[in-house]
Structures are given as C-alpha cells and as structure tokens.
Amino acid sequence: xxxxxxxxxxxxxxxxxxxxxxxxxxxxxxxxxxxxxxxxxxxxxxxxxxxxxxxxxxxxxxxxxxxxxxxxxxxxxxxxxxxxxxxxxxxxxxxxxxxxxxxxxxxxxxxxxxxxxxxxxxxxxxxxxxxxxxxxxxxxxxxxxxxxxxxxxxxxxxxxxxxxxxxxxxxxxxxxxxxxxxxxxxxxxxxxxxxxxxxxxxxxxxxx
Length: 208
Fold this sequence. Notes:
The chain has helices spanning 19-44, 86-89, 187-195; strands at 46-52, 67-73, 93-94, 109-110, 118-125, 140-145, 160-170, 176-183, 199-203. It contains 3 helices and 9 strands; from the N terminus they run αββαββββββαβ. The chain folds into 2 domains: 46-110, Antifreeze-like/N-acetylneuraminic acid synthase C-terminal domain (Type Iii Antifreeze Protein Isoform Hplc 12, Alpha-Beta Complex), CATH 3.90.1210.10; 118-203, Elongation Factor Tu (Ef-tu), domain 3 (Beta Barrel), CATH 2.40.30. Helices cover 19% and strands 27% of the residues. The chain crosses the membrane at residues 20-43. Pfam families: SAF (PF08666).
C-alpha cells in the first residue's frame, strides 16, 4: 500500500484568533453578568419605610407608638416615607384619615394648629356621662352643664356644641379622657365645668 505524499504545492491554512473578537466576547459575558446582577438586586432590594400601627383620624396628633418600620421593595409605586423621617412626622397632625396597617404616604400629615375661633379642652368623664357608642374623632356632641349642689336648674348655662378630637382614652379607674374642640368663647366655661366634674356629653345626629 502506497503512502500518500503531501502536495507541496497546496498552501497550508493557519487558523488565527483575533484578539479583538476574544476581548469582545469576554466583555459581553461580563456585561451580561452585571445586567443580571442589577436586575436581581432591583427585584430583591428593599427600603425601610414607615407603617401606621392604628387608624389615625384627621386632626389627631401622630405619636411615636403610632408608627413602625417595615421593609418594602424598591419597585413599589407608592409615595412611601422613609424611616429616617420619623422625627419629621411625630408630633404633626393627620390631615386625612390614615388606616391602620397601611404605609404612611407623603401629604398625609401637617401642622397641628387649632383653627381660628375654636379652642381645645380636655375632659375626664366617668361612666354614664357620655354615650357608650363608637365615639370617633370628628363626632359632634353637646356639652351639657350639670347642676351643682343647691343650684337651680334655671341658673345653668345652655348646651355648647363641640366635636371630639382624638381617640378617647380609658383610664385604670374607669374614667375616660376626651379632647373637645369648642367655640373659643365657651372654652373657659367648659374648662371650669369639667374641673368641677359637672359635664355630660350628648351625641348629636350629625356625627361622622
């Protein structure tokens, strides 16, 4: 059997690797990895934001215990409030009703000023001096003066319209603390009656 003789006239083909193509391939792999990492981090990253622990009604002052910190994804399309702004929120008043369990959003709080022409008065009332129905902030009531010992009924001042500010707070002795918004001209009278324990509340029909 004859051994084939190489054709000396046929040129040899030498494979050459282009450094530019090799570099482009490495760069493409790196960019693909970075893009995948960016997408993964975008989907899994989270920010600490403020959550409302209980329903805060309009006009109530936001307390530290009303807020907690939770983590939400950065892709959530909600105007959340970062936990670093808690000091900015605490002590301000809610300008809208904020449901408990929801995330605090921008624009839901503001200054806790008292409207012109009105005043706020605190009361401590015992059981039987106010309705046991659901008294919420904004509920309209009448402040009724009770007679002192030996005082004639005709000497009592008339009822004073008021509205509840904030949630009632039940005390360990069974009494309840309430804050009322009353006409400024009647604030001193209501305060004096409250100090003498001569106040009862009547809920009117236009409460919220």
